[in-house]
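Progress report, Aim 2. The chain analyzed during this reporting quarter is listed below.
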Amino acid sequence: MNATRSWTDIAPADATNIDLSEDLTITAPLNENGERCPWPWEPQQLVGAPMGQYRCGYCGAMVMAGMPHLDYKPEERTLTAENFDEIADWVGGGPSLGDRRVLVFGDTDDEGHARIGDVIHRDGYGQFTIRPASV
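Predicted C-alpha cells for the chain:
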C-alpha cells in the first residue's frame, strides 16, 4: 500500500490515536536502523525545553527537542560529471589527483573511490558505501 499522507502534515494533537507502525498510508521517518517511528510527534512537542538531543521514546532515534523528528532514511546518489562538486561536498571528498572522473573520500584506512556512474549510498548511521556502475 502506498503512503498517501505525510506525517509532517498532521499536528501532534490530531495524531494521538495514530500508530505509524500499523498505518502504512502515512509516511513515517526512519530511525538509524531503518525502522519506521510509530509516533514521531514527540520531539516537536518539546518546544521551550532546553535545546538538545535525546532519544525518541518510540523508536530510539536521536532527535532534537522542539524540532520535527529526524528522518534517517538511506540516501543514494549517482555520481555524474554535472553533480561531481555537489556529491564531493556531500561525502566530504574531492577529485583524485585532479581527475574529476574519480571522487576520493573517507579516512586513509578505508578510502572510497567512486567513478562517474557509481552509486553512493549513505545509511542511517551516515556511513557511505559505493555500488559500482554496471558495465
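The two ends are 34 Å apart (CA to CA). The mean pLDDT is 87. These observations will guide the mutagenesis work planned for the next reporting period.
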